[in-house]
């Protein structure tokens, strides 16, 4: 039986033990299934686990958080219901520290700071609008950011979201700083990237192991794509 063409364990799989499967998700892949019917990361993970451990039935794969389809980077999946329950609690209580890298077309001003907006999602258009003051049913959303420097003809911005709202980083950088993410035409960038990804990467995830309680940190290298090449000097 040939191994399914899912991942190279030394590349996409960042960590695995009895409870966690940490993946460096490629851009363009859904984390969890939706109306498109496209195969998501969760299904690929289940197939990988069934094959690796020769399971006769379905393998357990729990999704505790998501990345937007055009975004790459670290995703934590649970291999047990106990791990999933505790991961859900940690993400809900903002006890997971997330670090993203974003490329922008111009340098944000000021070059570091804190952004607070109230975000309102339009589920029909799948877009989010940011308001600088409290607005209706808007959810308060906070992030910290810092410009790391130039990356070719782009600027590399490190973002630490404090809350976890849909499209939060994308809309807050665009609305709050006037610096939409490269390739993100939905939020104001002028042109898409050739692979229709956006230059937003979940670089690091820091959390307490849901079972052993060990402090853990996972880093995902940026994609092997031309527009990310210049950012590697900031590793």
TrEMBL record:
Protein family (similarity comment): Belongs to the pseudouridine synthase RluA family.
Organism the protein comes from: Hymenobacter wooponensis
Pfam families per the UniProt record, alphabetical: PseudoU_synth_2
Keyword set includes Isomerase: yes
InterPro entries: PsdUridine_synth_cat_dom_sf, PsdUridine_synth_RsuA/RluA, RluA_PseudoU_synthase
Superkingdom of origin organism: Bacteria
Protein name, UniProt field: RluA family pseudouridine synthase
Family annotation (PANTHER family): MITOCHONDRIAL RNA PSEUDOURIDINE SYNTHASE, PSEUDOURIDYLATE SYNTHASE RPUSD4, MITOCHONDRIAL
GO molecular function: catalytic activity, acting on RNA; pseudouridine synthase activity; RNA binding
């Amino acid at each position: 039986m040939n191994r399914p063409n899912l991942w190279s364990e030394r590349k996409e799989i960042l960590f695995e033990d009895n409870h966690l499967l940490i993946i460096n998700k490629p851009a363009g892949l859904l984390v969890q299934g939706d109306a498109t019917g496209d195969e998501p990361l969760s299904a690929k993970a289940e197939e990988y686990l069934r094959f690796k451990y020769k399971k006769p039935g379905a393998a357990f794969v729990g999704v505790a958080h998501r990345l937007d389809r055009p975004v790459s980077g670290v995703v934590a999946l649970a291999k047990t219901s106990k791990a999933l329950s505790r991961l859900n609690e940690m993400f809900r209580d903002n006890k997971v520290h997330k670090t993203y890298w974003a490329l922008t077309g111009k340098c944000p001003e000021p070059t570091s700071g804190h952004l607070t907006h109230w975000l309102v999602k339009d589920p029909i258009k799948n877009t989010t609008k940011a308001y600088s003051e409290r607005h209706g049913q808007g959810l308060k959303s906070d992030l910290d950011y810092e410009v790391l420097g130039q990356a070719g003809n782009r600027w590399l911005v490190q973002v630490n979201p404090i809350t976890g709202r849909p499209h939060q980083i994308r809309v807050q950088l665009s609305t709050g700083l006037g610096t939409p993410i490269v390739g993100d035409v939905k939020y104001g960038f002028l042109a898409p990237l050739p692979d229709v990804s956006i230059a937003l990467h979940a670089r690091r995830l820091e959390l307490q192991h849901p079972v052993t309680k060990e402090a853990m940190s996972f880093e995902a290298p940026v994609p092997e794509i031309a527009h990310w090449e210049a950012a590697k000097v900031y590793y």
